[in-house]
Amino acid sequence: MLRDVQAGHVPVFAGCAESVQWLHGGGRCRVDRHREYSEIIDFSQKQLLDVLCHHQDMAGDRPHLRIPQLHADPQGLIDVMLTDDRRVLLVGPPGTGKSTLVDGLATTLLQRGRSCHCLGADPGSPLFGVPGAVCLGRRELTTWTVEVIEALCTLDAGRFRLPLMAAIRRLSATVDDGVLLVDGPGVVRGVAGAELLSAMVDAAGIDAVLVLAHAGRTPPLQQELQALPIEVYAVAAVPEASRPGKRARASRRTGLWDGYLAGAGERVLDIRQLTLTGTPPPLDVPASWTGRQVALLDGVQTLAMGEVLALEAEWLHLRLPDDARPVRSLLVRDATRHADGRLATVERFVADPFSYLPKADVTPYAPTPAMTGPRPVGRVGALSVCLVNGVFGDPLLHVRLRHRRRSLLFDLGEGARLPARIAHQVSDVFISHAHVDHIAGFLWLLRSRIGETSLCRLYGPPGLAANIDGLVRGILWDRVGDNGPRFEVIELHGEELHRYTVQAGHPGYTLVEETAAADGVVMAEAGFRVRATTLDHVSPVLAYVLEPAQEINIRKDRLKKRGLPPGPWLGKLKRYLQTGRIGVRIALPDGSSEHVQTLANELVLVSPGKKLAYATDFADTPENRARVVDLVRNAHTLFCESTFCEAESDQAKRTAHITTRTCAEIAEAAGVARLVPFHFSRRYEKDPTAVYAEIAANSRVVVVPETVVID
Predict the structure, then answer these.
(1) N or C: which end of the chain has fewer CB within 10 A?
(2) Is 455 left (phi over 0), alpha (psi -120 to 50) or beta?
(3) What is the mean pLDDT of the chain?
(4) What Å distances lie between residue 694 and 209, 459, 587, 698, CA to CA?
């Protein structure tokens, strides 16, 4: 096997018909042909490499031997393949020493009086310059001098390959002398790795590739490397090279970012005067902007990079290096400052897990004769959600407030599959309307709450109080006295809320008060609120959206810098912020006190909560579509009915339901991140593939069970 090729020493690669040995002194090589005789030939090192590749071509069963292997020694590498000015790309997995080798090559070239540039093409782990950008630098003495940057505002080279290639092409075109070293990203697997390799070679005009790998490991991207029409060399990583931990990489990256922003000041821009490019977060979710890395652009030229301090109405507050040049556009992608102070990739909006459990008549729930299809279960931020009766059964969405003994229900279909203990933890039930499949579970809730003294609130359209009262009065309560389950029923009447009380054992329902329902808010607490809108299903129906309060995270790096230990005072800070009490002073562990607003500006990073939306049983009318889209806009997860396929659109009109296409179009128009269709007609019970296929054809965000295969 071919091992080392260096000036003065090349061990034999064994097992081939011929073997080659470099002889010390001069440029001489011994070639043993079929081990029957040998001759000594004079070779230059470049000719030797050509011979080695020829011999490796003969080993057809070991195609990776086509790539000659070199030591990670800057002196030897320069003697072998950098005797002239050329453009060299370094690729390899993280932890193989690419950046260290680039540094060594540049230093050695400089010592030999030769010019060397480096193009940092790894925005997530740059050797020098600004993370989140492609940087062109020149080696001078013991440091790199950054000459120009092109902002990407992302640390993910694999995801944003096209912008990365455009930046590499433009910056490499500015280098017309000396050696250009391109420090490639550590993405070397799958489609992303293959595309990056060939694209970088083309964009930068590469004429040689050094691929690094640890000893004993096959270099990555074998087929792609062999297909390149340029010189390719394998370089054995030095034994001490290792991949730094995630925290170490983030800390170094953050150090570079903080260094770039050192001495930066605050600048306020009118966001209405800017063209937003990249993948900016929604403007109506200001908290999603805080901490984002941005770039001010003039055409494709990067004027400066900065960090968002806050978005207040149309005013964007930025931390920027001193630069007063006019700005035409603002680039935003997914690089952000996390709560711990480190520069990292923003958490994917749909990163919360989501899946489909088997049919709900399978354990752990009690078996029932009804087939209800797969059950969607998952997470939405701080919420755990489960569509209890599956996509074909009675609508009943169980929402668990994680880390709290509290549950919410959306609709109240058959509840036998929920344990009785859940009924005692249900504080609020949001009912779309009183058709039997949406309210039949009330008797389960009522029975389970006998002996429960806490109040349970039920929300719904006009007439719900009478419906609940009728169900309660249908049962004999001669033994409960004043201990019967108590309910508060809140009906949404246009822009007003009507509150009623209903208690088992007490006849009738009583109107308690009428209050305004501003912006459709039917419930509001410090941690979240629920809004509703009225839809037409021949009778009134409510759709809901649960909007958690903004997530308040403490910046641990700044807490440590202040020398303040964590404790109950941080809980107070969060509660006061959630309730808007920013003028209150909080006692700190060091004996001092400060206003909530002052502490928040220094220690707090706010991120948006993840909205959960629920809409079912409504006709496909322009008014209904507009109201639903407005209500659920930018929701994280939308549970939406998809009762009929397009072939049954006439049936959908007759029954005032919507079809698969309508469901998908609503999700796309509203810009939701995840669509969970449900409330399917039982005519598709044996095979729901057609339902999911039609939705998927019109929506990119639909969640499809793994058991459903769509061609």
Answers:
(1) C
(2) beta
(3) 85
(4) 46, 33, 58, 7
- Percent of the chain as helix, strand, coil, to the nearest 5: 30, 30, 40
Cα distance between residue 649 and residue 659, in whole Å: 6
User: Number of H helices and number of E strands within the chain?
Assistant: 18, 38
Helices (H), 492-567: 556-562
* Helix or strand (DSSP H, E) at 420: helix 420-425
Given the DSSP bridges, would you call strands 208-213 and 231-236 parallel, antiparallel or unpaired?
parallel
In contact, 581 and 607? CB cutoff 8 Å = no
Q: Are 235 and 101 spatial neighbours (Cβ–Cβ below 8 Å)?
A: yes
Supply φ then ψ for residue 359, to 5 degrees: -50, 145
The pLDDT value recorded for residue 454 is 83
Contact of 408 with 427, CB cutoff 8 Å? yes
**Distance of alpha carbon 38 from the chain centroid:** 61
Pairing relation of β-strands 133-140 and 143-151?
antiparallel
Helical segments of 263-372, H only: none
H/E stretch holding 304 reads strand 301-312
> Mind listing the pLDDT tens digit for each residue in 234-281?
998 888 877 777 888 889 999 999 999 998 888 999 999 999 999 998
* Beta carbons within 8 Å of 587's beta carbon, 6+ residues apart: 569, 593
Beta bridge partners, 637, equal 612, 674
Residues 6+ apart with CB under 8 A from 362: none
Distance separating alpha carbons of residues 335 and 250, to the nearest angstrom: 12
Residues 642 and 679: beta-carbon distance below 8 Å: yes
pTM value is: 0.64
Tokens in use for 555?
């910046």
Write the DSSP assignment of 206-246 as a string of letters. --EEEEEE-TTSPPS-HHHHHH-SSEEEEEEPPTT--PPPH
Express each pLDDT in 64-115 by its tens digit: 446 788 888 899 999 988 989 999 999 999 888 899 999 999 999 999 999 9
CA distance 610 to 613: 10
- 10 Å CB burial of residue 606 (0-12, 13-18, 19+) is buried
- Given a contact cutoff of 8 angstroms between Cβ atoms, the answer to whether 266 and 317 are in contact is yes
Minimum mean pLDDT range among 114-118, 187-191, 345-349, 514-518: 345-349
Look-up of token digits 């057609």: 690
